[in-house]
Each structure stands twice: as C-alpha cells, then as structure tokens.
Specification:
Blueprint lengths: L3 E3 L7 E11 L4 E6 L3 E7 H8 L7 E3 L5 E4 L3 E4 H9 L6 E8 L2
Antiparallel strand pairs: 1-2, 2-3, 2-8, 3-4, 5-6, 6-7, 7-8
Length: about 100
C-alpha cells in the first residue's frame, strides 16, 4: 500500500511518497531505512537535536515551514515524528518520504 501526499503552494508542487522509515539504532544513532534497500544512512541523535534547536548540520536542513526535516535534499521526515523518536527512545519510529517535484 502506497501513501502519497501532494503539497499545494505557489512553487511547483512536490510529491511526497513514503519509501521507508527512521528508527532508533545502536549507540544513539537513528537509522534511515528505505524499503527494499535497508539502512542507507545513520544520523547521530545529537545532530538532529542540534538541527531542531536552530543550528546548521551538514546533510540536514529544516523545511521553509519548519515541519519537515530534509535529509540529503532527497528525503523528508516530519519533525513531530522525529521528536517522538527522541522522547520515547527506542519505541517510536518515523515515516521517511521521497520528495519529487511535479509538473
């Protein structure tokens, strides 16, 4: 089952397709997992906390609205879900979305 959301704004619409998840890993890392490929990257929890507090972290950025974290300019995850992972470690997970511009 696919889950697709299309944004509505003045800029070209972006299609968000759920392609995986973030889950707590070992030693304070958060694993970025895509369906079919497995773990593609691990992010230190401290980097996410720094970014949520307004500091710049290479490979991560906050969306214009502030409700999504952009990973490597390709994937997005909801900030509320990332906060849930950190707050309820290690029980929570977060959905990982692939961002694609639409015509």
């Amino acid at each position: 089952m696919t889950f697709i959301v299309t944004s509505e704004r003045d800029k070209p619409p972006i299609r968000y397709e759920k392609v995986g998840r973030l889950r707590p890993g070992e030693e304070g890392m958060i694993d970025v997992i895509t369906d079919g490929n497995g773990v593609i990257r691990s992010i230190p929890t401290g980097d996410l906390i720094l970014m949520l507090n307004g500091l710049t972290v290479p490979g991560l950025k906050l969306s214009e609205s502030g409700n999504r974290i952009i990973i490597s300019d390709e994937y997005a995850v909801l900030v509320t879900q990332v906060r849930g992972i950190i707050r309820d470690w290690p029980r929570k997970k977060a959905a990982l979305f692939l961002m694609e511009e639409r015509d």
